[in-house]
Amino acid sequence: MNPEVREPQVAATVREARARYFAENDLADGGYDDPWVELRTGPFTIRFPNTAARVAAVKLHDLHHLATGYETTWVGEGEIGAWEIAGGCGRHVPAWILNLQALAIGTALAPSRMWRAFLRGSSGRTLYHGDRVEDWLDRPLDDLRSTLVRPAPAGAWRTALPAHLAWTTLALLSMAATIATCSLPLVLAAWIFRWLAAS
Questions:
Q1: Residue closest to 61 by CA, chosen among 85, 26, 41, 37
Q2: According to the model, what pLDDT value does residue 45 have?
C-alpha cells in the first residue's frame, strides 16, 4: 500500500464505511442537503451553491474516497482529483471542474503525489460512468475497492505521463483564469479609488 494513502478502516459494507467517513471528517451526512458549500482556508471562507449536479457528483466522489483511501486534506483532494480525472468523470461536469481546481492546488503542494495518483487512476475506473450510489451501499467495501482500484501494469507510465502533463497544464491554466476572474473586481475597485483620489 502506498504510504501516502490512508488504508480505509475495515467495514462490512460501503454504507457503514461511508458513515464512518462522514463522522471522521465532520461531514454531517455528507452535507448533500445543504444549500451552500463552504471551503475554509485560514481566515477565508469560499461559498458556492450546492447544486443538484454537484451533489450527484459528490455522492460518487465520496465513495471514491472510501475505495482509494485518499484523505480530505488539500493534498488528498488533489490526489483524488488526479485519480478521478485519469479514470474519467463522464458527464459529471462539476466533477471535471472541481477536480481540475484540486489538481492545480495539489500540483502546487505535492506534484509527485499528483503524478502517482494519476498513474493509479489511469489503470482503474470511476463510478462516474453510470453507476448508482444505491447499488453499492449494501455491498462489501472490498468489492468497491477491487472494482475501482487496480495496480498499474508495467509500462503504463508511458501513456499516462503525456496525459498527466496535459491535464496538469489545463488545471494550472484553469486555476490562473479563476484567480484572475476573482481578482478583477478588486483591481477595478482599486483603479476607481485611485481615479477618485486623483480627481
A1: 85
A2: 74
Residue 2 — very low, low, confident or very high, per pLDDT cuts 50/70/90? low
Q: What is the DSSP string of 25-85?
A: TT-SGGGTT-SEEEEEETTEEEEEE--HHHHHHHHHHHHHHHHH---SSHHHHHHHHHHHH
φ, ψ for residue 133 (rounded to 5)?
Answer: -55, -45
pLDDT at 95: 97
- Which residues on adjacent β-strands are paired with residue 48? 37
Max CA separation in the chain (angstroms): 71
Q: Give the C-alpha distances (Å, rounded to integers) separating 184 from 135, 136, 178, 187.
A: 45, 44, 10, 5
Helix, coil or strand: residue 19: helix
Report yes or no: 61 and 134 within 8 Å, Cβ to Cβ. Answer: no
Domain boundaries, the chain: 14-198
- Indicate the average pLDDT of the chain: 89
pLDDT at 192: 75
What letter represents residue 70's amino acid?
Answer: Y
Q: Report which of 138, 15, 14, 20 is spatially closest to residue 67, judged by C-alpha positions.
A: 14
Q: Which residues of 130-161 are buried (b: 16+ CB within 10 A; e: fewer)?
A: ebeeeebeeeebeebbeebbeeeeeeeeeebe
E strand or H helix at 115: helix 111-122
Mean pLDDT, residues 51-72 taken together: 96
Q: What integer pLDDT is reported at residue 179 of this predicted model?
A: 83
